[in-house]
Specification:
four-stranded mixed β-sheet, Rossmann fold, 385 residues, alpha/beta, 2 domains
Length: 385
């Protein structure tokens, strides 16, 4: 009997974290959780520590009514402790399921330590794609994509010559407003934006799905993961979220990966790669009709997707600017400070005002990210006054 792979789960209390724990429960003989982190959900984190007998835990901030953690668990709060947890010497795998640019530092820390990184944080590559990929090459660290779309591409390209790949097509559900007349988008509410038709995700990602900023971020991520030029990366609307991606090869043949809309499929593939075992959930039933319809996205409905494509084409700091402005705008929308359609206007103004540059070190990336956020905050304040 083989020894279970020891792994760390960063972002254990979010939706990706919950799906990862479902995989762990199914395959507890193959995986051992040794470290977990959360932002502020201390009680949920303590429950996870108790259930899986976790030795190391990290909270980004203390809460007023802190629960008791399991005796013997090393609980940390300092910012640098998260990086140390990501590089823990006993961990073979580090699952990065954090939301936003906050995933950049621990992703780099894990790769610097030569870890296998199961990456469910697209923003890390959007903000620091060059630095992350160069670090992985230098240290021998491995990146296995856990987003359903990128994991689909990963599966479709396994065993294929690297020079045979022509292009990638990522699918998108279209989010909560795919059938709403464009003129009515200015009146949509936060509650409506959080009502995703297929996926159960956190609020930020769900809103990003409604604007299709999420798909734009994924196109940028795909550029760094698979080394294709922007014009070789496409997105299509596929309402049922059964096909997660297509890969087109130079001979014209297309491969696709299909599974129900649950993150457990991609996460299990990432965690247990290259082996396959019975899944957590039932797979597709081909005795029932399947909807395999596809259509191009309307950029009038999804201006955030268009802006992301422009940022990818421009390169340099533009994807970082897109991501930072989007994070601030989505946060403001969640606080009812701006309307839904103003999310794209904040991104557009940030991209037009920020001078293009090419930050390379972690400090340069973080400094530029903070400048963008200050600019976006000023724009949000002007709109909400």
């Amino acid at each position: 009997m083989s020894t279970p792979k020891k792994f760390v789960l960063l972002g254990a209390t979010g939706s990706i974290g919950a799906s990862t724990l479902r995989v762990l429960r199914k395959h507890s003989d193959k995986l051992q959780l040794i470290g977990v982190s959360a932002n502020s959900r201390a009680r949920e984190l303590a429950d996870i520590v108790d259930e899986f007998d976790v030795a190391h835990a990290h909270l980004n901030r203390k809460i007023d009514d802190m629960p008791n953690f399991r005796e013997g668990t090393n609980l940390t709060f300092e910012a640098e402790a998260l990086d140390h947890l990501a590089a823990h010497p006993e961990a073979e795998i580090v699952v990065v399921a954090l939301v936003g640019a906050a995933g950049l530092r621990p992703t780099l820390a894990a790769l610097e330590a030569g870890k296998k990184v199961v990456l469910a944080n697209k923003e890390s590559l959007v903000v620091g794609g060059q630095l992350i990929t160069e670090t992985a090459r230098r240290t021998g660290g491995q990146i296995i994509p856990a987003d359903s779309e990128h994991n689909a591409v990963f599966q479709c390209t396994m065993g294929q010559p690297t020079n045979s790949l022509d292009s990638i097509i990522l699918t998108a559900s279209g989010g909560a407003f795919r059938d709403l007349p464009v003129g009515e988008l200015k009146n949509v509410t936060l509650k409506q934006a959080l009502n995703h038709p297929n996926w159960l995700m956190g609020p930020k990602v769900t809103i990003d799905s409604a604007t299709m900023a999420n798909k734009g971020l994924e196109l940028i991520e795909a550029h760094w993961l698979f080394g294709l030029a922007p014009e070789k990366l496409e997105a299509v609307i596929h309402p049922p979220s059964i096909v997660h991606a297509f890969v087109r090869f130079v001979d014209g043949c297309c491969f696709a990966q299909l599974s129900p809309p649950s993150m457990t499929f991609a996460l299990q593939n990432s965690l247990l790669h290259p082996k396959r075992f019975p899944g957590v959930e039932p797979t597709l039933d081909f005795s029932d009709p399947l909807d395999l319809s596809f259509s191009p996205p309307c950029l009038d409905r999804y201006p955030c997707l268009k802006l992301a494509q422009q940022a990818l084409q421009e390169g340099g700091s533009a994807p970082l600017v897109f991501n930072a402005a989007n994070e601030l705008a989505v946060e403001a929308f969640q606080m009812n400070r701006i309307g839904f359609i103003q999310i794209s206007s904040i991104i557009e103004s940030s991209l037009s005002i920020m001078e293009p540059c090419n930050p390379k070190s972690l400090n340069e990336l973080l400094d530029h990210d903070q400048r963008v956020r200050r600019l976006a905050s000023e724009r949000i304040n002007s709109l909400s006054d």
